[in-house]
Amino acid sequence: MPLKKSELYSSIWKSCDELRGGMDASQYKDYVLVLLFVKYVSDKYAGQKDSVIVVPKGGSFADMTALKGQKDIGDRMNKIISKLAEANDLKGVIDLTDFNDEDKLGKGKEMQERLSNLVAIFENPALDFSRNRAEGDDLLGDAYEYLMRHFATESGKSKGQFYTPSEVSIVMAKIIGISRSNSKSTTLYDPTCGSGSLLLKAANEAQNKVTIYGQEMDNATSALAKMNMILHDSPTATIWKDNVLSLPHFKNADGSLKTFDFVVANFPFSTKSWSNGFNPAEDLYKRFEDGMPPKKNGDYAFLLHILRSLKSTGKGAVILPHGVLFRGGTEGEIRKNIIRRGYIKAIIGLPANLFYGTGIPACIIVLDKENAAGRKGIFMINASKDFVKDASKNRLRHQDIHRIVDVFTRQLEVPKYSHMVPISEISDPKNDYNLNIPRYIDNTEEEDVQDISAHLLGGIPERDIENLSAYWDVFKTLRGKLFANGKRKGYSDIKVDAASIRQTIFSHPEFADFTKAMTARFNRWMKKNQPLLTALKVGSHPKALIEALSEDLLTTFADSHLIDPYNIYQRLMTYWTETMQDDVYMISSDGWKEACKLRLIIEDENKKIKEKPDLTIGKLKYKADLIPPSLIVARYFAKEQKQIEDLSAEIESLIQQMEAMREEHGGEEGLLYEVIDEKGKISKNAVTKRLKEVRGDADAADERKALEEYFALLEKEAELNKKVKETQKKLDEKVASQYTKLSVEEIKTLVIDEKWLAILAADMDVQIQNIAIQLANRIKELAERYTEPLPELMDDVDTLTGKVNTHLKKMGFTWK
After folding, report:
1. Residue 511: phi, psi to the nearest 5?
2. CA distances from 380 to 267, 347, 413 (A)
3. What is the CA radius of gyration of the chain?
4. Higher pLDDT among residues 208 and 357, named by residue
5. How far is CA 349 from CA 68, 318, 381, in A?
6. Residue of 45, 317, 542, 759 with fewest CB within 10 Å of its CB?
């Protein structure tokens, strides 16, 4: 039975529940990732001859599963890991974590149960890496990314620096130009590589395999990076543990620094102890010829190391705090020298609070030595406002990533977003080589200026109407429908009342034409890409599919008016992340028929069900992962569903009748007062009891009649509810049976046409409607703002004051 990709990852994350309590996330991540490593290499390499990783006898994940429930499980797990490490020159890499540590894992039975449960989670049959693909759809790579993000989130501010958010890594990987390098000897370097995620993202963009080099001073983190390389099918990557500033490892035969084709880096910001272990003034590698960084701030020390590590044709991308762009003193001199050399190609300003080690805003500095001599300007992007809030951090969305990469790649000038700043402007005395982005790109929102004259004399300022010119360019006659020339020059009058503005826009022929045109574009995109979806099969590549779909969607709406193509792109990517990705991965893993099967929901050890079932047949509860039951019902059992809806409508009518009776007769003197409980409800038992009490009482004839009428309604409601339950049960049984009868073609129709494309089309309709709603809201705001000029308001105040004084005088009061 297929398992959703997202559910698989969350099940791995639950493995951390076995470890929480004895240690924090920065520690328990090591246990989980070592187990993930052992599971991966066992699945992928066990039993294979001449493989890059040797899985020795007694050193596999299968040997670990045999230990479940044993008293000495911790000690024996250490021995298994040690055998695997010795066989692959991984001593000091995968064996740093002690699985027999009583302080962290508990003593005796507590450790025994904790480790047994942890191993059992990785035994999940769906977690099979033997078929792990290297073409960007690898199950392991995405699982690892999922875990690393969660570990970084939980590790806290001081311990999350081992991970560069994948969204930022993707931007850097795409803008350094490594995808255009077709050399088979391309080298890639990260001097402070952390867990290696940034290196791997960059390497994944290359056309051919690249040679990876990384250095990391933290012992546990460098071990993590080495494991990460093997997990991501890059076992030949060289990762060295040491301080890159005091003891750079990668050197040429003559002792000079080795240089690389591409460099990426996200080093610790503003390190105070950067010069520990060496004397920068006597640096053997001549890294500080452009100036000596401040003693208490190492930002430029790392940047100068990177520049020295680039080939003469080398390119790189470095994450830095904004302070490097404008701080003065020695840093200002270094910055001036680097700019004069032409090494900086671009600066991309990022939102604040993206990174796990700090909340301050940062930027990406793009370096390019190859074209330095002829550089006449620095391309700047101010993307500081483009993000989504994600728990305690901010995160770049798909559309933000794509916009940054597109604008950078094409060097597009976008108002308030990007600008090619001439070196002559940067070097001008008024700027003095200050690179602070807002100095050159002001992305502040324009103030919504209040017009004093309009408040005094009425009318809507033409300036505000002209600011809506993007709409008038498309709806050319709509403006005349909404506005008329005012009595004063520069001011217009609204021709329709505020309540009718929205309807006027929606009913206008030009909006109808716009809707048809945008819908037609979307329909063309659906028709063009439907064959891609229909062709999905076992072995298909989901990431290649969504890239083709999303890129074509961007192209389809590239020259559209009013609708931002990146917004449409984001809607698709959001739906992909939330729903479609799981569907496609199930289909590509197990095929249409298997993915369509109902999944039995298993109770946990406490007889509780953690998932909400889609269908209940007898005592068994099922989840429909690929096709919601509502689609089956709509296509095959509309008649039965209509019967349930009609019965439900009857029940609703009875409920309304009973509510009306309670309203009419529920007061203290009312006929139903005696049977209403403290919550205002009337139960069948209460009515039955009261009927017995008033039986034969001639004075209670009216009350008895009301009770009998209410009792009849309750009886009818119960009868109908029973009928609905029985009908629903039969319908559920038919639906469950229908799942087994569906042909592949029927499944494809339900999933592609009636699920995926129907939802995306409905979302497109919403986006089109929002265009009219946004325009209507703004016009209504302006109309209401200036609808009553100040003199009229003052007259109203005088009139109302006079009325109040008159009433007060009649009551014997005087008020001045």
Report:
1. -70, -40
2. 22, 5, 9
3. 35
4. 208
5. 51, 12, 6
6. 759
C-alpha to C-alpha distance for 555 and 47, rounded to whole angstroms: 48
Which amino acid is residue 565, in one-letter code? P
Strand ranges (E), 590-734: 599-600, 615-617, 620-623
Chain-centre distance for alpha carbon 568: 15
Place of tokens 């009301």: 706
Query: Tokens 């008024």, residue?
Result: 430
User: How many whole angstroms separate alpha carbon 753 and alpha carbon 585?
Assistant: 18
Cβ-contact 59, 79 below 8 angstroms = no
**Cα angle 369-371-372, degrees, rounded to a multiple of 5:** 60
Distance, CA of 555 to CA of 467 (rounded, Å): 27
- Cα separation, 30 vs 215, whole angstroms: 19
**Residue 58 backbone class (left: φ over 0; alpha: ψ -120 to 50; beta: rest):** left
**CA 782 distance to own-chain centroid:** 35
pLDDT in tens, 702-748: 999 999 999 999 999 999 999 999 999 999 999 999 999 999 999 99
344's tokens: 């900086």
Give me the residues paired with residue 377 across strands: 422
Q: At what angle do helices 701-741 and 629-636 cross, to 10 degrees?
A: 90
Sequence-ordered alpha helix ranges (H) in 206-298: 219-231
Give CA–CA dist 97/26, Å, rounded: 12
How is residue 147 written in tokens? 């875990």
> CA 120, CA 143: separation in Å to the nearest integer?
17
Distance CA 151, CA 200 (A): 18
Return the number of other C-beta atoms located less than 10 Å from residue 348's C-beta: 27
Residue 306, SS3 per DSSP:
helix
Is residue 98 helix, strand or coil?
Answer: coil
For the stretch 209-236, pLDDT in tens is: 899 999 999 888 898 889 889 888 888 9
Asked whether 343 and 368 are in contact (CB, 8 A), the reply is: yes
* pLDDT of 789 over the 70 cut: no
- CB-count burial class (<10 Å; 0-12, 13-18, 19+) for 552: middle
Contacts 24+ apart (CB under 8 A), 505-514: 505/475, 505/478, 505/772, 505/775, 505/776, 506/772, 508/475, 508/477, 508/478, 508/481, 510/474, 510/475, 510/476, 510/477, 510/478, 511/475, 511/478, 511/772, 514/474, 514/475, 514/562, 514/768, 514/771
287 sits in which H/E element: none
Other CB atoms within 10 A of residue 634 CB: 13
Q: What is the pTM of this model?
A: 0.86
What is the rounded CA–CA span in Å between residue 463 and residue 632? 54
3-class DSSP state for residue 558? coil
